[in-house]
Structures are given as C-alpha cells and as structure tokens.
Known about the structure:
This protein is an alpha+beta fold.
Amino acid sequence: MTFVGKILLVIQLVLSILFVAFAGAVxxxxxxxxxxxxxxxxxxxxxxxxxxxxxxxxxxxxxANKDLQDSLTFNGNAAAKKLDDLQKKYDTTxxxxxQVSKEQDTYKTVSELEGRExxxxxDEAIEQRRINESMHQKxxxxxxxxxxxxxxxxxxxxxxxEFKRKHLLLFDDLKTxxxxxxxxxxxxxxxxxxxxxxxxxxxxxxxxxRYGKGNRILYVxxxxxxxxxxxxxxxxTVWRSGDEKKSRTKYLGQIRVINVHPDKAVGxxxxxxxxxxxxxxxxxxxxSKL
Length: 290
C-alpha cells in the first residue's frame, strides 16, 4: 500500500469516525430536540393555561379595580360634596359667628353706655330727689303761707263785705232821708232819684245765710247772678211759701245786692226788714217781681 493510499485510508478512517460522530451527534440532537419540543409543548400548554388563568385573573382584577375605582370615584364625589357642604356650613357658621361677635361687641358697647347712663341717671335722680325735697319743703312753706294769706283774705273779705253792707245801709238811709226830704219839701208826688237800674223780673232761691251775733242775719247768698241781670245795689224780695193747712206765705223782707258772680250773688238785709216776719234761711224764695 502506498503512502497515498495510507493517507487516503487514514482520511477515510477519520472521515468515517467524523461521520459516525456526526451521525451520533445528529441522532443525539434529534432525540434531544424532540424531548425539548415535547417539553416545550407541555410548557407552552402550561404557560397558555397559566396565561388564560392570568388573563381571567387579570380580567377579574380589572373588573374589581374598575368597581373599586367606580366606588372610590363615587365615594370621592360624595366626600367632595360633603366636604363642599361642610365648607359652606363652615362659611355660614363663621359668618354667623362674626355677626354674633359684632353684635356682642355692639351690645357690650351699648350695655356699657347704658350702664354709664343708668349711673348718670341714678346720680341725677338722687340730685333731683334732693331738689324735689327742697322744693317740697318750699312748697309746704308756701302752702302754709298761702293758707295764712287765704285766711287773712277771708277775714279782709268779711271786713270788706261788712263795709259794703254798712255802706249800702247808709246809702239806703241816705236815699230814705233824701226821699223824705223831697216828700216834705216837694210833695208826695215827687219820685225819688234812683241811680241803680232795677232788676229784671226773675225768681230764685236762697242758697245760704250767714248769721252774726244774736242770730242776726249778716249776708244772704242767692241763686241769681250776673248772667240773670243782677247788679250791685239792686233790691230783691225774700219770701217763704207756706202750707195751706199749717202756715201761710210769709214776707221776710228785702235784701240789697252787694256782691255779684255769674251764677250767684250775695246781699244784705235792709235794716228795716230784719227778722220782721222770720229769719231768712236756705230754701226761701227770692224774686224781683213784687
């Protein structure tokens, strides 16, 4: 065998070994690929099942997440609305609190002012009470003085009325003397001179009679006055109506008016008619018609 043949033989042997090794490797790879393929198919199925389970879990999780999100959104909106309501209530309460605080400050200020005014009025009332007490004492003093002056005035009026009565009596006597003198000097037919206008034809009542010492009539108050035409100096007749069975009508005399008021007057009895047929008393009749 030649060297080339040996070389070729060696090459063939090497190639054969390589081929056997390649074939073994191919077979080994084929068996390993099949096993790997089957394993991969099982793994794929497992993964696909796991994927489906994961997808289901993911769907459920998404649904649960959506439900939770919706719930959280609803709760969030409700909470936001409640927070807004609470904010409004807080604003309203704060505004009311501020208003009440202002009113409280105002009332406090007014109360302080009223307290000061009350203290001032109290002091003023005390001062006024002191002034009133002083004025009351002065009033009592003035009342006493007025009462004393009224008594003095009454006494002076009595004196004045007495002077008027005496004056009228003297005036009556003077007229009587003048009339008697004219009658003696000029005859019975000469009428006396009269300065007083005669009263109109009226009738009234005696309201009261004032007596002096010895039951002597001083003044007679009658129900006729200036509104009835009565004037000072006029003469009126006083009479008392009687009972047909027990007594008769009495002529009590004449009075001369010395003081006139609108609805009443005061007169004095003429000297010649005093207690001639009886004492004049309340209820007797007064007239100018006789």
